[in-house]
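Hi F.,

I've been meaning to write this up properly since the lab meeting, where we talked about keeping a consistent format for the predictions we share between groups. The idea is simple: the sequence comes first, exactly as it goes in, then the structure tokens exactly as they come out, then a line or two of notes. No screenshots and no reformatting. I'm using this chain as the first example so we have something concrete to point to.
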Amino acid sequence: MDDNRNAVFEFVFNSSDLKELDIADELKQYGRLFGANNKLYHDVYKTIFNHKDSFKYDSFVGSDIEMKISYENEIIFLKRGEQVIKVGYEDFLTLLSFVDISFSKVLPLYTVVELEEEMFNEDLQKVFASRKNTYVALTARKILVTDGENEYVIDYYGRLWPYGEIPDIPPILVTNMLIKKVVSMGISDDDEIEFATYDLWKKQVESKLISTAFMSEEQVKKLFAFVDTEM
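Output, unedited:
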């Protein structure tokens, strides 16, 4: 697969209903911007995940970005320079999911990552409550799951570092959006790169398989209720 990430994003976007929106060109601009600026992208996602109603990005180069969210009306307002657009909440989540599919790299197995504590749900808060760090080792990649109707991807299974797999302890479900930084990269060679690119990433792109990071709360509950019965 061509590793031109902007071209991949263009393909994914144009294969979706987003291309029919009046603001399609503007959304593409935001998608490419998010893909080029990982910190901005994650900060935008965290704003939504933590149910905050506004976010501002002060740019060193170019125009600042402001985002305001009406959760009640399911509308997001985006302002960049003099340009202001209004986008539906679900459409914006879809855009963010396409950025993830297109621009996120598939990390090698046994990469150790630090998780973003601000993104922890109650279960993860309990897991890491007595720990000095939030490190996990990635032990599986791009796990296909279904809620019985739709298919999604869990980006990684993670195990507490340095303990690894512990009997009767389920893996931590790690999304790209939960990763704060890479602490130690796993081993990679030509075979690993080929497998990650063509067997994992390419299939996700072609099928537009969305990460579980972009599911609604209802979808998450439905999915993992179903997954629990399958594991």
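Notes:
Residues 226-231 have pLDDT under 50 and may be disordered.
The chain has two domains: 5-102, 105-230.

If this format works for you, I'll send the rest the same way.

G.
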